[in-house]
Amino acid sequence: MTRKFVVVMMLFVVLAAGCVGVEETMTTPEMTVALAVGNVTANLALPSDTGAVYMHIVNNSAADDALIDAAIDGCGTIELHEMINDNDTMVMRQVEGNRIPIPAGETVMLQRGGLHIMCIGKTGEFTIGQSVPVTLTFEKAGTMEVMADVLDPAKLGMEMNGGGMGTDEAP
Predict the structure, then answer these.
(1) Is there a domain that residue 170 lies in?
(2) Other C-beta atoms within 10 Å of 46: how many?
(3) DSSP 3-state of 10
(4) Exposed end of the chain (fewer CB within 10 Å): N or C?
(5) What does the alpha-carbon distance between residue 156 and residue 140 come to, in Å, rounded to a whole number?
(6) Are 15 and 42 part of one and the same domain?
């Protein structure tokens, strides 16, 4: 073998190894960037021990994912909830398996009158205008922290009689 051939082969091996390393390091950021979360608002200022958080989750990837948990300081328990119409009565319940699917290429709306993150056993004091950190846990993308703006319940069109959650979309 000539010296030139050996140098070319060594250069090829180094370049090939470098490409593999780049591919591996790009996989993780692509998964987390693939999910975009926006319009995060919270109805946590009501004088009750419960509240809710709403948002839009966009899955820009080719792979399905799912929201499987959330954490908010000042909330005793967090559940992923949905509201459904059961014989002309709006009923709120935890989603099956505490899992909200986020299909590839789609936007999932967490909003009043539908899917939402439920804060149960509120221990924190939340004030209108405050921004609250919410840690979201996704099945594939892992954890992501977003900020939720605590909105004035009176401006959300909430019906205070009977504890109704309202059925209009989040702002």
Answers:
(1) no
(2) 17
(3) helix
(4) N
(5) 33
(6) no
Number of domains in the chain: 2
Q: What secondary structure letter does DSSP report for 14?
A: H
Q: Can you say whether residue 65 is alpha, beta or left, with left for phi > 0 and alpha for psi between -120 and 50 degrees?
A: beta
pLDDT in tens, 121-154: 999 899 999 999 999 999 999 999 999 999 998 8
Tokens 């799912």 -> residue = 66
**Nearest CA among 56, 47, 37 for reference residue 171:** 56
In a domain, 79, yes or no: yes
Residue 69 C-alpha from the chain's centroid: 8
Please give the residue that has the higher pLDDT: either 124 or 20: 124
Report the run of H or E that residue 89 belongs to, with start and end: strand 89-94
- Domain membership of residue 56 as a residue range: 35-153
pLDDT band at 86 (very low <50, low <70, confident <90, very high): confident
Same domain, 83 and 142: yes
Q: In whole angstroms, what is the distance from residue 38 CA to residue 148 CA?
A: 9
